[in-house]
Amino acid sequence: MPAPQYDVIAIGNAIVDVMAPCSDELIEQLGLNRGGMMLVDAEQADALYAAMGPAREISGGSAANTLAGLAAMGARCAFVGQVADDQLGEVFAHDIRVAGIAFDTPARPGEPPTARCLIFVTPDGQRTMNTFLGASQFLPAERIDEEAIAAAKILYLEGYLWDPEEPRAAMRRAIESARRAGCKVAFTLSDSFVIARHGDDFRALIEDGLIDILFANEAELAALTGQAQLEAGCDALSGKVPLLVVTRSEKGAVACFEGATHRCAAEPVEKVVDTTGAGDLFAAGFLHGHAAGEPIDRCLRRGAIAAAEIISHYGARSEADLPALMARKLG
Fold it and tell me: What is the spatial distance between Cα 268 and Cα 296, in angstroms, rounded to a whole number?
């Protein structure tokens, strides 16, 4: 068999993040789900944008953020996601390619426009995300490059993208391709609201043995398994998911692998500025180590270091030299 061309190929929402600091009072005034994510339509997106203060535009999307972190650490990556043939679509494509990530999905002509996520960041660093999915929810199954998936070690799927029907079919096709090629399938649950809508699908994928690596936070694990306690949630998936990774914010993270439970403390942070992308970059650090065959404990440490770096500044793209940071922290 030829050596894999990519360490990770990911399928996710192609989104441009629009971020602005705000007060707690504005969150309440706008009736937003503080610290969570909700989907909005074009009219709501325009209204929220008008309520924002000075903002920064940064290419984002959960899986794309993870790939950006991976590429910054030296991994070979490819991304599949749908943008529109418009200015924000050009911005997204330029940004992800400059990051060293292969991106060949053709832009979609006409409406709707490229997706954007309006992110309000409160003084404690908590982010409240309001996502207009736009063109990203029209990724057709024929855009799945089965040869590219076969040329990867890991296929990484973003739970957020499971919501729209068309990309859900594309992701199912990608899973089938990965299983045939012997490519590991990693899945991130993304948010509890996604589980509320599609939990039965996710549980079926797990029962059918189609997920090799599952990423979740504590709330998502509880929503998926119906178990409020971490240990009970992990036990519910024992024997069904070969590798389960659960992030716990300031309490660190846990990984369950081959009958053993591995724990990692959170990396100290002088000041939490913005939690946007913390889970995405944790996954990046973890997958970077896992794709290289490192022990689970070291993979967890990589994830914790990457997550700590990302929450120390605005935005979900790293500002530090991640390889140098990893070398200094890991020795």
Answer: 20
Whether residue 138 contacts residue 166, with contact meaning beta carbons closer than 8 Å, is answered with yes
R_g over Cα of the chain: 18
> What is the rounded distance in angstroms from the CA atom of residue 294 to the CA atom of residue 285?
11
- DSSP type of residue 74: T
Q: What is the model's pTM?
A: 0.90
Helical (H) or strand (E) element with 117: strand 115-121
Q: How many CB atoms lie within 10 A of CB 65?
A: 30
What mean pLDDT, rounded, does the chain reach?
Answer: 94
Closest CA to 84 of 166, 182, 13, 174: 13
pLDDT of residue 331: 81
Tokens 């389960």 found at: 244
Fill in the amino acid letter for 4. Answer: P
Query: Would you state the pLDDT for residue 1?
Result: 55
Q: Which of 211, 209, 329, 317 shows the shortest CA–CA distance to 265?
A: 329
Structural domains for the chain: 6-14+62-107+139-330 (3.40.1190.20)
Q: Is the predicted pLDDT of residue 37 greater than 90, yes or no?
A: no
Contact residues for 244 (Cβ-Cβ < 8 A; gap 6+): 214, 216, 234, 237, 255, 256, 257
Least trusted range by pLDDT, from 31-35, 229-233, 242-246, 279-283: 31-35
CA–CA separation, 179 and 157 (whole Å): 14
Strand 56-60 with 15-21, pairing: antiparallel
Query: In whole angstroms, what is the distance from residue 285 CA to residue 60 CA?
Result: 17
pLDDT exceeds 60 at position 93? yes
Query: Cα(79)–Cα(315) distance, rounded to whole angstroms?
Result: 19
Structure tokens at 42: 């074009």
Task: Please tell me what DSSP assigns to residue 232.
Answer: H
